[in-house]
Amino acid sequence: MFALKASSRAAFALAFALTVLGGVAAEAAEGALADLVNRRVLRVCADPANVPFSSDDPDKPGFENKIANIVADELGGIPVEYTWFPQATGFVRRTLFAKACDIVIGYAQGDEMVLNTNHYYRSAYALVYKKGGELEGVTELSDDRLRDKRIGVVAGTPPATILNRVGLMVNAKPYQLFVDRRYFSPTENMLKDLRSGDIDVGILWGPNAGYFSNQNGQDDMTVVPLLKEGRNPPMAFRITMGVRQSDTQWKRELNEIIKKRQGDIDQVLLDFKIPIIDERDQQITSARSSQ
């Protein structure tokens, strides 16, 4: 055995204590940080004009508003309080990170900016075209019937990469990705162009495709999730609820709620015509049983 000087012994003891007790300290800190979540009201960070996801119009709520109500009900019927901010650059920083609210109801799994809950639905980018036309039956972007067609696509999204790869970008009409949806809706513009014949087919994120293709009693569009394009880049994404990285206990509570109320959440999504995809890439057409 070798001898340690008094100062070295003190340093070693401190290091040992930090190593052994670090887990306890971290657990205590986690508990303190988790207490920052307001348990008397469900404080939701949301875009005020992002239908079908969220809306500040009580007469036209989005499906995330309805899912927030399910969460609040499961927490004992507490009220829901919103912090509204356009879902663009600065959204998370100005809302969740500023502690103005405690949850983002819809957040893609894998984004390290927030702590993700378990996913509560999975959807995919989808083709949209007129029912009964020459494109009926098209399920992938490599279909020869798309070769001379005018294709609408949101710039910067994964399908744009596929279009470029299969040589269809030359006929593509781009629509903006990052906009303030209080004033401008690329999705609604694309559906308008599709119905007028300005484009032949559109490619949209599944929830937008399903919802906007069925507005005002219109049932004139076929919506086909893109499930045959491979995973580079992926077309399907799991959607979670996002919380602050420190709020691990809050995440666990939300996971239990998702597990318990999955059937109710599914029904909300189906009511909004959202194409839900299971892990085997099969489309879900009826609410799953809650656990």
Topology, element by element:
Blueprint: H1 6-34, E1 42-46, E2 49-50, E3 54-55, H2 63-74, E4 80-84, H3 91-94, E5 103-108, E6 115-116, E7 121-130, E8 151-154, H4 158-165, E9 172-175, H5 186-196, E10 201-205, H6 206-212, E11 221-225, E12 236-243, H7 248-260, H8 262-271, E13 276-277, E14 283-284
Parallel strand pairs: 1-4, 1-5, 8-9, 8-10
Antiparallel strand pairs: 2-3, 5-12, 6-12, 7-10, 7-11, 7-12, 13-14
CATH superfamily of the largest domain: Periplasmic binding protein-like II
What structural class do you assign from the helix and strand content? Answer: alpha/beta
Instruction: Return Rg in Å.
Output: 23 Å
> What is the overall number of helices?
8
Elements, N to C (H/E): HEEEHEHEEEEHEHEHEEHHEE
Query: Quick check: average pLDDT?
Result: 87
Give the termini distance in whole angstroms.
58 Å
Q: Biggest sheet, open or closed, and with what strands and sense? A: 10 strands, mixed
Q: Which word captures the global form?
A: globular
CATH class call of the largest domain = Alpha Beta
**Strand residue content:** 15-25%
The total strand number stands at 14
The CATH architecture of the largest domain can be named as 3-Layer(aba) Sandwich
Percent in helix: 25-40%
What count of domains describes the coordinates? 2
CATH topology of the largest domain: D-Maltodextrin-Binding Protein, domain 2
Low-confidence stretches: 1-34
